[in-house]
Write the structure tokens for this entry.
Amino acid sequence: MIILRIASGISEHFPQRVSEWIMTGAILGWSSVLAADPGTFETSISFAVLKAYGDEATWALVCFVVGMTRLAALVVNGTFRQFAYSPHLRGGASFIACVFWGQIGLGVCLAWWAGGSGTGVVAYCTFMVIEMWNLFRAWADVGAARKAR
């Protein structure tokens, strides 16, 4: 019964949340890579900005917590109407992910100016823009829920 309710809640809201689901996969994927390879930041000068704030294990933990919080919020969102804070959790996760992707984008941009490749600038800054959109949508949902009450 609960599994059907969760599946129904997810499928009902999936079209509106598809970018959040995709970015949840991206940040959990990053967490896995950083946890599996503690030398990731040594492979490219693009990661010097992230390395300045913490090692791979720290970033892996941050990415994992953000990804799992977002995953929980997406599962709960619309499935359990009595839990009114899923848009807040989604927004918080989007904000933190936006900062994370922005830090990577900044690092790749600085590396590009130092003679590295610029392809990562486009990719990671696109991730940041997607997270900004997710943040906007989540806080719009907070306002709509508040109005409905």
Q: What stands out?
A: The radius of gyration is 17 Å. Residues 2-36 form the longest helix (35 residues). The chain is about 80% helix and 0% strand. The helical segments are 2-36, 48-53, 56-76, 86-113, 119-148.
